[in-house]
Amino acid sequence: MPVKPKLGQNFLDDAEAVEGIVAALGNLTGQTVVEIGPGGGAITAALASRAGRVIAVEFDRELAIQLRARFSPDIVSVIEADALRFDFAAASATAGDRLPVAGNLPYGITSQILLKLAASHAALDRAVLMVQREVADRIVAAPGSRDYGLLSVTVQMYGPVERLFTLPPSSFIPPPDVHSTVFRWRFAPRFAELGVAEAGFQRFVRQAFAQKRKTLANNLRAAAIPPAIIASVLHEVKVPPQARAESISIEEFAALWRVLELEKNPPPKTNPE
C-alpha cells in the first residue's frame, strides 16, 4: 500500500500488537468506538469484529475510499476528516454513551490530538493510543523524572495513564526511525477533586513550565506575578524557593494554584457587628 510520508503514515503490520491494542480497550460488545487514523485498516478490522460500530476517522482521501470498499458500512463508518476537527460530542450523543477511542497517532500532530481528546473528555471513556516512545515517556512520567513536564501534567489531569507495550520500527510499513509505545488513558478529570478551575489551572501550569531551566519562582515572575506573592505561596505550600516545575506533583501544583488565587483575590472583609 503506497504511503505518504508528509502525512506521517507508518502502517502497523504486527498482528500481536493489533490484538494487544484492541484487548486493552476491554469489552466492546455493542459499543461505538472511534479509531483515529485507521490507515491500512489493521486495527479497524479487529475493532469491527468486537464492537457494535466503528467510526474510522481518516484524513487521506485515497485510504478512506479503500476502507469504505473493504468494510461494511453497517459496521464501519469511514469519516474522511481531520481528527482535530472531529466532533466527539456529537458522536457520543448519537451512540448514547461515552466513547472508547483507539489510534496509531500521526507523530507530527500527536500533542494536538491529545489536547483535542482532553477537550472532548466528557464524550470519552477510555483510549488506547500509539505514539512515539519518547512522547509516551513524557505522558506517563512522574514528578522528579527527566521526562516529567507540561505534557505529563496536562494529560494526567484528565485521567490516569499507563504504558502498555513498546514496538520496534520493524512492526510498521514502512519502518519509522523511532520506537512506538502504546498507552491507555482513562478519562476522569481531576479538576473538581483538586479544587481548581480548568482554564485557570492549565494557564498556571503552562507558566510554571515556560522555561525548563528556570526555577518555578522565576517562571512565575516572568508571568508578572509579584515576587512577594510568589514567596508567600511557596512558603504556604512548603515548596522550596529554588524548586523547578519538574519536581512538583499535580497535587502540589493544585495547592499552589489555590493559594495563589486567594493571594490575588482575597475574600472580602466582613465588618464585625
- Measured as a percent range, the helix fraction is 25-40%
Number of domains: 2
The CATH homology group name of the largest domain: Vaccinia Virus protein VP39
Q: Taking strands numbered 1, 2, ... along the chain, how are they ordered across the largest sheet?
A: 4-3-2-5-6-9-7
Structural class: alpha/beta
How many strands?
9
Do you know the CATH topology of the largest domain?
Rossmann fold
What is the top-level CATH class of the largest domain?
Alpha Beta
Query: Nearest-angstrom radius of gyration?
Result: 22 Å
Low-confidence stretches: 1-7
CATH architecture of the largest domain: 3-Layer(aba) Sandwich
Backbone shape: elongated
Mean pLDDT: 94
Most strands sheet? 7 strands, mixed
Instruction: Determine the strand fraction and express it as a percent band.
Output: 15-25%
Distance between the termini: 81 Å
What order do the helices and strands follow?
A: EHEHEHEHEHEHHEEEHHHHH
Annotation field: number of helices = 12
Keywords:
single chain; 273 residues; alpha/beta; Rossmann fold; Helicase, Ruva Protein, domain 3; 2 domains; seven-stranded mixed β-sheet; two-stranded antiparallel sheet; 18% strand; disordered N terminus
Report on the structure:
The protein has a seven-stranded mixed sheet, sandwiched between helices. It has a two-stranded antiparallel ribbon with strand order 1-8. By secondary structure, it is of the alpha/beta class. It has two domains: 5-189, 3-Layer(aba) Sandwich (Rossmann fold), CATH 3.40.50; 193-264, rRNA adenine dimethylase, C-terminal domain (Helicase, Ruva Protein, domain 3, Orthogonal Bundle), CATH 1.10.8.100. The chain has twelve helices and nine strands. Strand 3, helix 3 and strand 4 form a beta-alpha-beta unit. The model is unreliable at 1-7 (pLDDT under 50).
